Amino acid sequence: SEKEQDMVILHHVVEVEFPNNQPCENHRATLLDFGRGQYTAMALTVGIPAAIGALLILRKSVKSYGVLRPMDPEIYVPALEILEAYGFNLVEKID
After folding, report:
1. pTM of the complete model beyond 0.85
2. From CA 29, how far away is CA 23, in angstroms rounded?
3. How far is 82 from 95, CA to CA, in rounded Å?
4. What does the alpha-carbon distance between residue 38 and residue 31 come to, in Å, rounded to a whole number?
5. Is the distance from CB of 47 to CB of 55 less than 8 angstroms?
6. Please, which residues have CB within 8 angstroms of residue 95's CB and are 6 or more apart in sequence?
7. How many other CB atoms sit within 10 Å of the CB of residue 35?
């Protein structure tokens, strides 16, 4: 209906424990995105990151081979920059 809002919410909470009885930290990351025009929020938040991955491979920006997780700076740094240019903003907080 016209009163419904198309959106995706992604929220991660990671508890970080340090050695030597240092206080724990909670790292939070939240993404809130809304559909744009004819594209749903789900289509955008799934399709654009997949397209960015393909783009990085085609540009030969990624030197590694095989099944890769986006934990390597050669992947996540340019990917996050492109996502931000598309209007995706991840809000991060440490408690």
Report:
1. no
2. 20
3. 28
4. 20
5. no
6. 25, 26, 28
7. 16
